[in-house]
Design goal:
The protein is mainly alpha-helical and 432 residues long. It is built from 19 helices and 6 strands. Bound molecules: s-citryldethia Coenzyme A.
Length: 432
């Protein structure tokens, strides 16, 4: 659907200081209506103001559709429930980036290329040596991705973008696992071409030279599911950051490195790490989850139920629903009894009946149950947001590519309403 197809006959009318202005209206393929304010300042001199961009569309996109009221999430039209049940992460990555489900030959070729670009340049290992063992893996991940532009300088859209997309997806897996090995002082384990993307990551994470690690199928499948569920989510904070940086024609690696930093924040991808910290605190406090629900309702406490709430979902987050069942399944398959899962379920049960959460339409989001599964895999808490970044990478790439391929795309440069001092003259220090 081209942008011109979107324009509706209907117009929006704005009255400002007794003048009336007409603005075009656009309607998307899911009947979302947007008032096109591209010319607003030219015709009226006014701009709009929208803190947190909650009411502002930054682009038109064909990649991911979310209906927050109905708890719908679709990648290129395919419901997340179907992809989670029937697809795999590499196929979903291909779908997001290229817009269609690949044939077997296309998927085999994509997978072959990924396995044959998973090695890092040996000089990149020296960068890991410079980080202290306590370095947060998200800081390492962002730095290492940005440094890829030193080894592959031609990473702009007009360069060999297909090869750099392959390099980035293939190498992020290795960089993530190497950052873990670095943090525990173990030797790096190199990628193995015969393993799936998920199995290769777990093998690089947990194999040691003295004892090879056989990746349990239950964990390989669970990780593949987690990566699918995190793969894209329309114009969230980190994806908007990737688009923002890419709009200046910065290269792919620089754009993704910026997205990793945005994801790190505890209100965004960093929430999955905060959820486990919160559940551990409740568990250490005798499991009194009701106390923490009451704390979350008390503004003075500044306490939030991490993993709860969402800017778009005002009903359940379909990913959280899938992950809740997956957590039950994985823990029982592994014979693990994690009291944190019971605390999480009790928190969800009590919050969903409490007026404070019901009125604010606060439901568990994707971060609420994911950490329980990562823990069952033996992945340390400070690696949880790295896992989110691994999953989100194809979505970031797809959104960056769509933005760069959009005719007439302009550098992102919002305006502001100035509230500072009006003009005043300089006073020399001797007279202050
Ligand atoms: C992700 O955008 C995406 O799609 C993100 C994501 C993706 O896939 O990319 O889905 C991934 O980031 C999920 C969100 C992970 N973050 C958390 O779990 C952190 C806890 N959640 C909140 O910080 C909050 O809900 C946000 C950040 C997720 C959404 O923030 P909004 O939309 O700005 O909502 P808000 O902060 O204005 O909250 C509205 C009200 C407020 O109360 P009032 O001022 O109306 O009285 O709800 C309250 C908030 O205080 N509230 C919470 C709460 N979240 C919101 N109260 C207690 N606990 C919470 N978790």
């Amino acid at each position: 659907m081209s942008t011109t197809d979107l324009k509706l006959e209907a117009k929006a009318k704005l009255t400002l200081e007794d003048k009336e202005y007409e603005l075009p209206v656009v309607k998307g393929s899911e009947s979302e209506v947007g008032i096109d304010i591209t010319k607003l300042r030219n015709i009226s001199g006014a701009i709009t103001l929208d803190s947190g961009y909650a009411n502002t569309g930054s682009c038109q996109s064909a990649i991911t559709f979310i209906d927050g009221e109905r708890g719908i999430l679709r990648y290129r039209g395919y419901p997340i429930e179907e992809l989670a049940e029937k697809s795999n992460f590499i196929e979903v990555a291909y779908l997001l980036i290229y817009g269609f489900l690949p044939t077997k030959a296309q998927l085999d070729d994509f997978h072959y290329k990924l396995t044959h670009h998973s090695l890092l340049h040996e000089d990149m290992k020296k960068f890991f040596e410079g980080f202290p063992p306590t370095a947060h893996p998200m800081g390492i991940l962002s730095a290492m991705v940005s440094s890829l532009s030193a080894f592959y300088p031609e990473a702009g859209y007009n360069a060999d973008i297909e090869l750099n997309i392959i390099r980035l997806i293939a190498k992020l897996n290795t960089i993530a696992a190497f950052s873990y090995k670095k943090s525990i002082g173990q030797p790096y384990v190199y990628p193995q071409n015969h393993l799936s993307y998920a199995a290769d990551f777990l093998h690089m994470m947990f194999s040691v030279p003295t004892e090879p690690y056989e990746v349990p199928k239950a964990l390989e499948d669970a990780l593949d599911l987690l990566l699918i569920l995190h793969a894209d989510h329309e114009q969230n904070c980190s994806t908007s950051t990737v688009r923002m940086v890419g709009s200046s024609e910065a290269n792919l690696f620089a754009s993704i490195s910026a997205g990793i930093c945005a994801l790190w924040g505890p209100l965004h991808g960093g929430a999955n790490q905060q959820v486990i910290t919160m559940l551990q605190k409740i568990q250490d406090d005798g499991g009194d989850y009701k106390k923490y629900v009451n704390l979350a309702k008390d503004k003075e406490s500044k306490f939030k139920l991490m993993g709860f709430g969402h800017r778009v979902y005002k009903n359940f987050d379909p990913r959280a629903r899938i992950l809740k069942h997956a957590a039950d399944r994985v823990l029982s398959e592994l014979g693990i009894k994690d009291p944190m899962l019971d605390i999480a379920k009790n928190l969800e049960d009590i919050a969903l009946k409490d007026d404070f959460f019901v009125e604010r339409k606060l439901y568990p989001n994707v971060d609420f149950y994911s950490g329980i599964i990562y823990r069952a895999m033996g992945i340390p808490t400070n690696m949880f947001t790295v896992m989110f970044a691994l999953g989100r990478l194809p979505g970031w790439i797809a959104q960056w590519k769509e933005m760069r391929e959009t005719p007439g795309v302009r550098i992102y440069r919002p305006r502001q309403i100035f509230i500072g001092e009006t003009q005043r003259s300089y006073v020399p220090i001797s007279k202050r």
